[in-house]
Amino acid sequence: MLKCSFKSATGFDCPGCGLQRSVLALLEGDLVGAFVYWPTLFPLLAAIALTAVYLLSKRPLFMTIAYRLYIVSVVFLLGNWLLKMTGVIPCPV
Question: N- to C-terminal Cα distance for the chain?
Fold first, then answer.
């Protein structure tokens, strides 16, 4: 695992804390582990996939759904980060 430069510089967990472990868990087929490490991964991947589908099909519905998933991703990211900063849940690093 790569060392987090944000945490090294500030001493605080970064919003992306757990991303590497989440991707590795997903690649190993551990969906629950991937969600536990970084819950933002699933809505973000879905939004990226829908953006790609939109670019291929040019149907506005796909981009509308993708925008909403990007907003959900930001909410998950900030909520997860705030829970980690307050100590409610530990950072997996």
Answer: 9
The rounded Cα 23 to chain-centroid distance in angstroms is: 9
Average pLDDT, the chain: 91
List Cα–Cα distances, 27 to 24, 30, 32, 68, in angstroms: 5, 7, 12, 25
Report the predicted TM-score, pTM, of the whole model to 2 decimal places.
0.84
Diameter of the chain measured on Cα atoms: 45
| Residues of the chain with confidence (pLDDT) below 70 | 1, 91-93
For residues 69 and 51, give the distance between their C-alpha atoms in angstroms, rounded to a whole number: 10
DSSP reduced 3-state for 15 = coil
Closest CA to 43 of 81, 12, 74, 85: 74
Q: Are 63 and 74 in contact (CB under 8 A)?
A: no
